[in-house]
Design brief:
727 residues, alpha/beta, Rossmann fold, 2 domains, 6-stranded mixed beta sheet, 4-stranded antiparallel beta sheet, 12 strands, elongated, binds adenosine-5'-triphosphate
Length: 727
C-alpha cells in the first residue's frame, strides 16, 4: 500500500489488491487509527497509512477543520420555592410545574482555530451553556444535540479530547508553577512518553502561557505570597490543556483579573485555538482589546440567544435592530446595556430574540449560496470524526495520544497511567506540598505532645490502689478519645483538596481509587510519628504496666486508634462539604463513641437496644485493648482487704477496726480475709468493666479493620459524591 511518512498526516487513497480492499471494508476502531498515527510518529515506523476509515471511498481530502455544532439546546430545572420570581421565558406548562428554563432553544457552532465567547449579564445562562456543551449536564435533562463534525459526541470520547477550566483556581499552594504543570503532565500524559518529553511539553506550555518568569514561583495562598492572579489563572488553564485538547471550555477565565491580565489570558486562548483547537469561553464584559481576539459571540439573555455572530457584525445587527452603536462606544458594553434595558421592559428581550432569528436565517441563506459556489470550484471532503481526530493527533494534538488499549474494542483507555503510577505521582505531589507547609503537621504534632504532657503530669506515676484503678480507667478513656479528636484536623485538609480532586478526576487525570490509596499510604508515616509522640510522653510517666513489650502494645493500640480515627474523619470529609459542619458532626459522633465505649457504662449495664452502638464505637476497641494490656497479664493486686472500705462510709474507720470487720466477714463467708488479702486482681477489674468478649489483639485488629472499612467508604463517597455534573 502506498504511504506517505514523516510528521505530517500520512495519506493514501488508492488500494492495489483485494486484500487491501477487504481491509478497507472492515472499519477500524479509533484506537487502531490512533495506533497507526502513533506508529507513524515513531522513528521506527516512518511510513504508515491511516487513510482508511469512514472516508475510504473518497478522493484525497482537503481537510475540514473541527466544527462543534449545537442545535436547540434546552435545559430546565425544578424551582424549589413558590414565591421566587420566575423569568418570563417559561411556558405555561412549565410555569405550572414550577420549572425554570435555564437554556431555551440555543443553537450555534464553533470552529477550529476560533474562540467562541458566550456573553450576557450575570445569570443569563453563560455557565449553563458551557456546561451543556462540555457534557456537564446529565443527558436526560438536556434537550437538543451537540455534535462534533456532525457526529454526536460520546461522553468518554469527549473526556479524552476536551478540557474544562473552572472559574476558580484550584491549585496546590506550595508547588511552583513548573511543578504544578509537571504533575499535570505526569497525570495526563502517558507513561510511554519519556520524562524528558514531558518536561519539554511543560516548557513549551510555560512559554505558550507566558509564564517563563514565574516558572519557579510557588502558587501561593492567603498565607504565602505567590504568583499574581493572572498568572495563577494561566496555570489553571495550563493544567487542563497539558495534553493539548481539541476542545477547550472555560468558565469566566478573566473574571477578577485586571484588564492587562485578562487580555493576556485571552491572548493565550487565541494561541491555543490557533494551534488547532476550538475554544469556547464565557466572558462577562470583554474590553475592546479582548473583543478583537474573539471570533464568534453568543449573547444570552435569560437563557435565550439575543445575538449570535462575529464581533464585527454586531454593529450591523444592532443597527438593523434599530439601535445603532454610537461612535466611540464599546460594542459589547452597549449590547449588554441594551439587553439589560430590554429585560426590564414588559416584552423583555423577545423582540431581540426574534430579530436574531431572522438575522440568522438571512445569513444562513447567504452562506448557502456562497458554499454552493465554493463546492463547485474545489473538491472538498469532510472527514468523519474519528479520522479527523487521528489527523489532528498526527499534527501534534492530544499530546497524550490518548493511550490505546489495542486488546480491547474500546478505542481509548480512560486513564493515561496505570494505578501504581498514579499513586506514586499523587503521593509525591502531596508530600512535596506538605513538606513546604510543615506548620500543618507541626500543629498536629504539637497538639498531641501537649495533650500527652498534660496527661503525663496529671496522671503522674499512678499507684495500684482502688483509686489508682479508677484513675487508670479515666486516663485510658481520655487518651483513646484524644487520638480521635486530634484526627479532626483532616477535615479542612481534605476539603481544601476536594475541589482539586473533583476537577482532576472529572477529566480522568487519575482514578479515584488511586487517590484513596495514595491518601491512605501517605497518612501512615505521620500517624506513626503521632503515636510514638503520644505513647512516649504518657506511657512511662503514668507508670503503666508491662515494661517495654507493654509499651510496644500500647503504641500499637494508639496507632490503631489514630488509623481508625483518621479514616473515619477522612470518610466524613468526603461526605460533608463544609468545614464547620464537618467539625460539628465529627465532634458529636466522637462524643457518642466515647459515651458508648464502655467507660461510663459497662457493656453488661447498657440497655440491650443500645448494644449495637457499643459495638460501633471506634473508641471501644483501642480502649479495651489498652485496658487488657494494663490489667490482664499483671500479677498486681489492685484491692487488698483493708482497701475494700475505701470510697465507702467506712473509709474513715480506724485500720484496726477494719481488720476486725474483715475477720468477722471471713468467718461468715467461711474463709480467711486479712488486711493484706488480695480481693481484686487485674482480671477482676476487666470483668467489672465488662471487658470479656474480645482479646487485646482482636481489639487491635478490629480497630484496624474499621480504619480500612472507612477508607473503602471514603472511596464510595468520592465515587458517588463527585459526579461533577448538573442534574
Ligand atoms: N439548580 C438551579 N436551580 C434554579 N436556578 C438555577 C439553578 N442553576 C442555575 N440557576 C439559575 O440559572 C441562571 C443561569 O445561571 P448561570 O450560572 O448559567 O448564569 P451565568 O450567566 O453564568 O451567571 P454569572 O455570570 O453570574 O456566572 C441563573 O439565574 C441561576 O440562578
Amino acid at each position: 500500500m502506498a504511504a506517505t511518512g514523516g510528521d505530517s498526516f500520512p495519506r493514501s487513497w488508492s488500494y492495489t489488491n483485494e486484500s487491501e480492499l477487504r481491509e478497507f471494508a472492515r472499519r477500524p476502531t479509533l484506537g487502531e487509527l490512533l495506533k497507526r498515527v502513533e506508529d507513524a510518529q515513531s522513528p521506527d515506523h516512518r511510513t504508515v497509512d491511516v487513510s482508511y476509515g469512514c472516508s475510504y471511498l473518497a478522493p484525497p481530502p482537503v481537510l475540514y477543520p473541527f466544527k462543534l455544532s449545537f442545535q436547540n439546546l434546552s435545559y430546565s430545572v425544578k424551582v424549589r420555592r413558590r414565591g421566587s420570581s420566575l423569568p418570563e421565558n417559561l411556558t405555561a406548562e412549565e410555569n405550572g410545574g414550577r420549572v425554570k428554563l435555564l437554556l431555551n432553544d440555543i443553537s450555534g457552532e464553533a470552529r477550529e482555530g476560533e474562540i467562541m465567547a458566550v456573553l450576557g449579564a450575570s445569570g443569563s445562562g453563560k455557565s449553563t451553556l458551557i456546561d451543556a456543551l462540555a457534557d456537564r449536564i446529565t443527558k436526560e435533562k438536556l434537550r437538543g444535540t451537540v455534535t462534533l463534525n456532525d457526529e454526536v459526541l460520546e461522553s468518554a470520547l469527549l473526556k479524552v479530547i476536551s478540557a474544562y477550566v473552572m472559574q476558580d483556581d484550584l491549585l496546590f499552594p506550595m508547588l511552583t508553577v513548573e511543578e504544578t504543570l509537571m504533575f499535570a503532565a505526569e497525570f495526563r500524559l502517558p507513561r510511554s512518553l519519556s520524562k524528558s518529553k514531558k518536561k519539554a511539553r511543560v516548557q513549551a506550555l510555560i512559554d505558550q502561557l507566558g509564564l517563563t518568569t514565574a516558572a519557579n514561583t510557588v502558587i501561593g495562598d492567603e498565607g504565602h505570597r505567590g504568583v499574581s492572579g493572572g498568572e495563577r489563572r494561566r496555570v489553571s488553564i495550563g493544567i487542563d490543556i497539558i495534553h493539548d485538547p481539541i476542545l477547550l471550555f472555560l468558565d469566566e477565565p478573566t473574571s477578577g483579573l485586571d484588564s492587562t491580565s485578562a487580555f493576556m489570558v485571552v491572548k493565550v486562548l487565541q494561541r491555543i485555538a490557533q494551534s488547532g483547537s476550538i475554544v469556547i469561553t464565557s466572558i462577562h464584559q470583554p474590553s475592546y482589546r479582548i473583543l478583537s481576539l474573539l471570533d464568534r459571540l453568543i449573547f444570552l439573555s435569560r437563557g435565550q440567544t439575543v445575538y449570535s455572530g462575529s464581533p464585527a457584525e454586531l454593529s450591523d445587527f444592532l443597527a438593523d435592530f434599530g439601535h445603532p452603536i454610537p461612535e466611540n462606544e464599546n460594542r459589547t458594553e452597549f449590547a449588554l446595556d441594551l439587553v439589560r434595558d430590554l429585560e426590564e421592559t414588559a416584552g423583555g428581550t423577545r423582540s431581540m430574540v426574534e430579530h436574531n432569528k431572522s438575522w440568522q436565517w438571512k445569513n444562513k441563506n447567504h452562506l448557502k449560496g456562497q458554499r454552493t459556489i465554493r463546492r463547485n470550484s474545489s473538491h472538498r471532503f469532510h472527514l468523519c470524526l474519528k479520522d479527523a481526530i487521528s489527523a489532528s493527533i498526527s499534527r501534534g494534538k492530544l499530546v497524550s495520544g490518548a493511550p490505546i488499549d489495542s486488546n480491547r474494542s474500546s478505542s481509548f483507555s480512560k486513564f493515561s497511567n496505570p494505578l501504581w503510577t498514579e499513586i506514586l505521582v499523587l503521593a509525591k505531589r502531596s508530600i512535596t506540598n506538605s513538606r513546604r507547609m510543615p506548620e500543618l503537621f507541626g500543629i498536629r504534632l504539637g497538639a498531641v505532645l501537649i495533650t500527652g504532657v498534660i496527661l503525663a503530669t496529671m496522671f503522674w506515676h499512678l499507684d495500684n490502689s482502688p483509686k489508682g484503678v479508677k484513675e487508670r480507667l479515666g486516663f485510658f478513656a481520655f487518651a483513646m478519645s484524644t487520638t480521635f479528636y486530634t484526627c479532626a484536623e483532616a477535615i479542612p485538609v481534605f476539603l481544601q483538596e476536594r475541589y482539586i480532586f473533583m476537577r482532576e478526576t472529572a477529566y480522568n487525570a487519575y482514578r479515584r481509587s488511586s487517590y484513596v490509596l495514595a491518601h491512605s499510604l501517605i497518612s501512615i508515616p505521620s500517624l506513626i510519628i503521632l503515636s510514638l509522640a503520644f505513647s512516649g510522653t504518657t506511657y512511662f510517666a503514668v507508670g503503666l504496666a508491662g515494661g517495654f513489650s507493654g509499651f510496644l502494645f500500647f503504641f500499637a493500640a494508639v496507632l490503631a486508634a489514630f488509623w481508625a480515627g483518621s479514616s473515619f474523619v477522612t470518610f466524613l470529609s468526603g461526605v460533608v462539604s463544609h468545614v464547620m459542619l464537618g467539625y460539628t458532626v465529627v465532634v458529636a459522633i466522637l462524643a457518642y463513641f466515647l459515651l458508648f465505649s464502655g467507660f461510663f457504662l459497662s457493656r453488661d449495664r447498657m440497655p440491650p437496644y443500645w448494644i449495637w452502638f457499643h459495638y460501633m464505637s471506634l473508641v471501644k476497641y483501642p480502649y479495651e485493648a489498652v485496658l487488657q494490656n494494663e490489667f490482664e497479664a499483671t500479677a498486681e493486686c489492685f484491692v487488698r482487704g483493708v482497701q475494700m472500705f475505701d470510697n465507702t462510709p467506712l473509709a474513715t474507720v480506724p485500720a484496726a477496726a477494719k481488720v476486725e470487720l474483715l475477720k468477722s466477714m471471713g468467718k461468715t463467708l467461711g474463709f480467711n480475709i486479712t488486711g493484706s488479702t488480695c480481693v481484686t486482681t487485674g482480671s477482676d477489674v476487666l470483668r467489672q468493666q465488662g471487658i470479656t468478649d474480645l482479646s487485646k489483639w482482636n481489639c487491635i485488629w478490629i480497630s484496624m479493620a474499621w480504619g480500612f472499612f472507612f477508607r473503602i467508604l471514603f472511596y464510595f463517597a468520592l465515587l458517588f459524591g463527585s459526579k461533577n455534573k448538573r442534574n
